[in-house]
TrEMBL record:
<dbReference type="InterPro" id="IPR014777">
    <property type="entry name" value="4pyrrole_Mease_sub1"/>
</dbReference>
<feature type="domain" description="Tetrapyrrole methylase">
    <location>
        <begin position="15"/>
        <end position="192"/>
    </location>
</feature>
<protein>
    <recommendedName>
        <fullName>Tetrapyrrole methylase domain-containing protein</fullName>
    </recommendedName>
</protein>
<dbReference type="InterPro" id="IPR008189">
    <property type="entry name" value="rRNA_ssu_MeTfrase_I"/>
</dbReference>
<dbReference type="InterPro" id="IPR014776">
    <property type="entry name" value="4pyrrole_Mease_sub2"/>
</dbReference>
<dbReference type="GO" id="GO:0032259">
    <property type="term" value="P:methylation"/>
</dbReference>
<keyword id="KW-0949">S-adenosyl-L-methionine</keyword>
<dbReference type="GO" id="GO:0008168">
    <property type="term" value="F:methyltransferase activity"/>
</dbReference>
<dbReference type="Pfam" id="PF00590">
    <property type="entry name" value="TP_methylase"/>
</dbReference>
<dbReference type="InterPro" id="IPR000878">
    <property type="entry name" value="4pyrrol_Mease"/>
</dbReference>
<dbReference type="GO" id="GO:0006364">
    <property type="term" value="P:rRNA processing"/>
</dbReference>
<keyword id="KW-0489">Methyltransferase</keyword>
<keyword id="KW-0808">Transferase</keyword>
<dbReference type="InterPro" id="IPR035996">
    <property type="entry name" value="4pyrrol_Methylase_sf"/>
</dbReference>
<keyword id="KW-0698">rRNA processing</keyword>
<keyword id="KW-0963">Cytoplasm</keyword>
Length: 226
């Protein structure tokens, strides 16, 4: 029975930070499914793998998924990874995993880094429970509603956005009345986390372009006197 490993890889700027166990398993796979060719090739090189490479990203259609599925079915061991962190959490491609499951392919996890949990861990914000909101919508009305929902939420919320959208995201959050945590370049040598009101963060970070994750603590309601 074919096996597909879903591998979490490094979120740092050094792909060799990927766990040794993961690199060893990748080296034994004859089929690899990545997200972006240049990044995937670097990972395969680090693992000393000669696997046949396929790509799945936001541009992949179902017909392409079916072709990749056939390759995975014909291999004893295959591996699926995204550019950084753990696949299928905002990254591609839960649909492909579902297709593999439905065809009886054995799916196993290779746990690795996640920018979501990393950001929560350094935020200093209570996250006994938290909600991952993914990426904000691009359409202005839905985007505004996205941030209003976070500002009103009583539950800690984590979300991310594209690196070039940092300034715009902070501008969208200027109406927030409480501090948030923002982590930039998680896992890299220049990683930094700030905790402040969005307007103060904007003063410091306007124009910066970097991968980031934001953690917003739940809204605390004031006690009403009886």
């Amino acid at each position: 029975m074919p096996v597909l490993y879903v591998a979490g890889v490094s979120i740092s700027d050094n792909i060799k930070d990927t766990p040794e166990k993961t690199l060893n398993i990748i080296s034994k796979c004859s089929v690899a499914v990545g997200e972006e060719r240049s990044v995937a090739l670097k990972l395969l090189s680090a693992a000393k793998s000669s696997a046949e490479l396929y790509l799945i990203n936001e541009h992949t259609g179902d017909n392409e998924r079916i072709e990749i599925l056939k390759a995975v079915e014909s291999a004893e061991y295959s591996v699926f990874f995204s550019d950084a962190g753990t696949p299928c959490i905002s990254d591609p491609d839960y649909k492909f995993i579902g297709m593999c499951r439905d065809r009886g392919i054995i799916i196993k996890s290779l746990p690795g880094a996640s920018s979501i949990t990393s950001a929560v861990s350094v935020s200093g914000i209570n996250a006994k429970t938290f909600f991952f909101a993914g990426f904000p919508p691009r359409e202005s009305g839905k985007r505004r509603q996205f941030f209003e929902n976070i500002e009103k939420s009583k539950v800690t919320t984590v979300f991310m956005e594209r690196p070039y959208s940092l300034t715009g995201t902070l501008k969208d959050m200027l109406f927030f009345k409480r501090k948030v945590s923002i982590s930039l370049n998680l896992g890299c040598h220049d990683e930094v986390t700030y905790y402040d009101y969005p307007d103060k963060l904007l003063e410091r970070l306007e124009g910066v372009k970097a991968p980031f994750v934001i953690v917003a603590g739940g809204k605390i309601e004031k006690n009403h006197k009886k």
